[in-house]
Amino acid sequence: MTASISIGTDSHGKPVLVDVEELLATRLLVQGNSGSGKSHLLRRLLEESAPMVQQVVIDPEGDFVTLADRYGHVVIDAGDYNEREIVTMATRIREHRASVVLSLEALEIDAQMKCAASFLNALFDAPRDHWYPALVVVDEAQMFAPAAAGDVSDEARRVSLAAMTNLMCRGRKRGLAGVIATQRLAKLAKNVAAEASNFLMGRTFLDIDMARAADLLGMERRQAEQIRDLERGRFLALGPAICRRPVSVKIGAVHTSTRGGTHKLMAPPVTSGEDFQELLFAPEPQDAAPIAPPRADPPPRPAEEIIRALADSPSAKPAAPELDFGQNEPVVMAVLEEIVADLGDAAPSVSTLYQDFGVRCRMKGLRTPPLDLPAFRKRFAMAQAGMMDAADPRWEPAMRAADTLPEDMLAPFLLIARAAMQGHQCPDDAALARAYGTSSPGRVRRLIDYMEKLGVIVARTDFSGKRSIGVPGLGLSTAVAEG
User: Fold this and answer.
1) Where are the beta strands (DSSP E) in 425-480?
2) Which residue, 328, 357, 390, sits at the end of a domain?
3) Are 178 and 167 within 8 A, CB to CB?
4) Which pLDDT value is given to residue 245?
5) Which stretches of 82-201 are assigned E, i.e. beta strand?
6) How many CB atoms are closer than 10 A to CB 313?
7) Is the pTM of this model over 0.85?
């Protein structure tokens, strides 16, 4: 396996390579104004080097948590843990060589700086036996190593700047290679920036930032103007791990993206003010489709669980041989059963559950999740209804009957369909609410009304309040139960 990765192409279309081994010894500084493609560059670097080296990402905005879906990074949401737990996790990260993303988006700036400092110091202070090579990527580095005092407390600035200085000045001997990215070179502490030997400079407009970038690239001041003219996604590269003379690089494509995606221009609908007033202030019709329930924030994963996941990270030990599809299926069924059993009354998002699914699969010996996200959504809905074995032909009619339903209604419908197929009582509102991801009885009633309007169920309630639900697509009905 070569130690070089491609980050993009030069002006002649030739690939520009980064020597990862050299990068570990010489560190990297990335600079670019907002919108220059700086985060895209970091993502490209992380994706390409993921199979080669352990990665630790300090992520103040939660932009890189999606690396977990494809590359197996463990996401640590810093807002859910105290300082002692963060330090413990950082120590285990070095011991087990787990690639992680420390998401700080739930914290205020002071707390972000203190948490990042504690985390970096724990990585730095790991026992000598655990000094394995690792890329430590710090986005928005000017926040954690500011050149001057700002609105943050003196204590937060002091501890954060000390941790960043340790990372860039003394981290190499401990295997820690700093990759820091900043929007403004002028706002980044000079003793931190000066320790990088490799540079990727993107578009910037302020004279002071262009002058510093030109100095770092060894360019004359009059040549600095070209930094202002760089297009989005193009950077000037220099350094022993990349090239010996400045070269223009167009950063290549990536496989993952931020959770929110990229905002595009979208024209507003063409209509008159009167039409908008009618749309905005019209009363809600009685037969409107039920509004999807708001997804509550998932409960934080216990620190002990994340620590166990770190210990079972694929990089911590030789990967188990990949099983074939027939052998994977019992693992999938067992993991789905565990997730459903652990749900309780919580309603985490499907993407969060999918991440949990991937971790549990790896803990059972699978290198990669055997289901992609769309397939997981379907299997998880079936599992909520007790249909663990997707290959069981008994469930095929129920799945066909659900074809016209929105995705979020699949689980409660299958719960009803299974009860009808087995002659059991109609599921009560509490069971349907859990499957639908809500705690509101009103939403459950609107759910039943909406499915009835679609013709996929027929609800019957007698004068005593006992309810049964028929499924026309199956020609069956549940037994009568209290509504």
Assistant:
1) 458-461, 466-471, 476-477
2) 390
3) yes
4) 85
5) 100-103, 134-138, 176-182, 198-201
6) 22
7) no
